[in-house]
Amino acid sequence: MPPYKLISSDSHVTEPADLWEKRIDPEFRHRAPFLAHEEHGDQWYVDGNLKFGVPSNVQAGVRFDDPRRISLEGRYEGPHMRGLDPDSHVQDLDLDGVAGAVLYPSQGLSLYLVPDGELVSACFRAYNDYVAEFCRPYPDRLKGIGMISVDDVGDAVRELHRVAKMGLAGVMIPIAPLDPPYTHPDYEPLWAACQDLALPISLHTGAIRATTFVDVIALNLDPVRMTNKEVKAREALAAMIFSGVFERYPKLTCGSVEFEVGWAPFFIERMDYYYKERPAGHRGYRFKGDALPSDFFHKNVFVSFQEDELGMQLRHHIGVDNLLWGSDYPHAESTFPRSREIVERILTGVPHEEKVKIAGENAARVYQFE
Prior knowledge:
Elements: E1 7-12, H1 19-23, E2 34-38, E3 41-46, E4 50-52, H2 62-65, H3 86-96, E5 100-104, H4 117-135, E6 142-147, H5 153-166, E7 170-172, H6 188-196, E8 201-204, H7 216-220, H8 223-227, H9 231-242, H10 245-248, E9 254-257, H11 264-277, H12 279-283, H13 293-300, E10 301-305, H14 309-313, H15 315-318, E11 323-325, H16 339-346, H17 352-367
Parallel strand pairs: 1-5, 5-6, 6-7, 7-8, 8-9, 9-10, 10-11
Antiparallel strand pairs: 2-3, 3-4
């Protein structure tokens, strides 16, 4: 069999410590995120004294060397820090046997928890400028994802147009927005703009909007929350499907990222069941003709996974064309530098033509890799 191409639909940049202080709009500079070197480790702060981020989560390969060394606390430096610049990122892609990568933030994910919406938007603009510049030297191998706040839909639409002009390949929105939920018509301009600009939407783990700041490290240490973390992504997808977003915007694409995929078959079946059989389905939005929620899932939704062997066994219930592999480089749980070995193991018994799609072809289609 010919080798198949690996494209990671979920990789990350390692933001430099001065990213926001250097790039944020001048009026927000005194509130910008910054890295403090403290006695027992480094800590990111924003808006003066709000702790955010996981300083040492960029520990690619440590799980294979010595998993006991993995920690959510530590120094934002050292030999485990990878992907700090585009040249080294591409060198690591070559080392890992990966042809291309879709890039999300690392520390920036936690900024959705900042209560002040104007500050959040300013932080996101600075990040979007940075990631577009990061990807520019390798446009065929690195595809950046823009960060979008949906607190103000008009502001979100303006940022969508800006990131599209900068060449970013997609955008991420919070998996749990502030009021209103994604069923609300207020978001219609957002969906329309994403479709018109051909920007796929991502619902990435950790991107939860909040009015009260919370401790990110505490959240990551909560086994109950981590075991059920895909719930908010499911709610967001169900809101979009049941409110007819994909019927009104048939070329719009939205996906869950870094939640694995074993939950998806049951989710798809439950949506159809409640739409057809239960009173709640009869009182809500009704699709044209005989269409079912599952039809929109299979046509408009993608799911990115890392090492979900159960999900691969259930792949035909999800849809082979809907599955995108991702390495999560350079985070501690990433498959780097053994991605090809791990993908081959979890795709054992999968026909070659399906492997080609899941390992890279589907990501190439969604994010327009050559």
